[in-house]
Amino acid sequence: MSFFFRTFAAAKVFGEFPTTGKENYLTYQNSMKEYNLTTKMHAYQWDELTDEQREVLTIAKEQTKRSYCPYSRFHVGAAAKLANGVIIRGCNQENAAYPSGLCAERSALFAAGAQYPDQPVERLAIACFTGGHFTKEPGSPCGACRQVMLETEHRYGGKMEVLLYGENEIYVFDSAADLLPLIFVSESLKG
User: Fold this and answer.
1) Is the distance from CB of 171 to CB of 42 less than 8 angstroms?
2) Which residues contact 189 (CB under 8 A, 6 or more apart)?
3) CA pseudo-torsion sign 126, 129, 134, 140
4) DSSP string spanning the chain?
5) For the segment 80-132, what is each residue's pLDDT rounded down to a tens digit?
6) Listed residue (160, 159, 161, 157) closest to 186, CA to CA
7) Is the confidence at residue 6, as pLDDT, over 60?
8) What DSSP line would sit under 50-68, residue for residue?
9) What is the rounded CA–CA span in Å between residue 155 and residue 146?
10) 16 backbone φψ class: left, alpha, beta (φ>0; ψ -120 to 50)
11) Whole-angstrom Cα distance, residue 191 to residue 184?
């Protein structure tokens, strides 16, 4: 793909279009397909949620107070409810060497896996706090957290409901897979 684009760019700069480059570029253009990816998400107000959903969101909000984020000042809390009813708490932990920190979602999911390796995570709630208040719109997990969420779901063979808290509304996803299209799981390693 990069060859075709480089050839096309060179032709624009030098005012001529090499025959092979033009043919390759046009062939590429004619064979390109476009796909639309869609995801399903629900948006709720606090009073529209179930008691169980409000319970894990409340804990995620409380966890923002325990985060260690002196660099970003972006507090994130997470709560993972397991099949046995236990709720595991997590929050972001920053480090001056940025890659050495850990997001709230992963801290909760890794703790759940370490403490209760045989218990699926049924629900994961996430809340973000910055500038003296919770974010108006729900915060979205980073790519690494989405991958770990998907692996957690895949590990236990069931869906994990994901709740993202915002003051204006709460997003609810039926599955972590809804947050990460074109998933990469263990079957992907088989080619």
Assistant:
1) yes
2) none
3) negative
4) -HHHHHHHHHHHHHT---HHHHHHHHHHHHH----------EEE-GGGS-HHHHHHHHHHHHHGGG-B-TTT--EEEEEEEETTS-EEEEE-B--SSGGG-B-HHHHHHHHHHHH-TTS-EEEEEEEEEETTEE-SSPP---HHHHHHHHHHHHHHTS--EEEE--SS-EEEES-GGGGSSS---GGGGG-
5) 999 999 999 999 999 999 889 999 999 999 999 999 999 999 999 999 999 99
6) 157
7) no
8) -HHHHHHHHHHHHHGGG-B
9) 14
10) beta
11) 11
Task: Return the structure tokens found at 185.
Answer: 């799981």
> Hey, which residues are catalytic here?
105
Q: Which residue in this structure is represented by tokens 């996803």?
A: 173
What is the rounded (10 degree) CA torsion for 90, 95, 101, 107? -20
Phi, psi of 128 (to 5 degrees): -125, 140
Measured at the alpha carbon of residue 33, what is the angle toward residues 30 and 38, in degrees to the nearest 5?
160
Note the residue count of the chain: 191
The position carrying tokens 């062939």 is: 27
Share of the chain above pLDDT 70, in %: 84
Selected residue with higher pLDDT from 80 and 184? 80
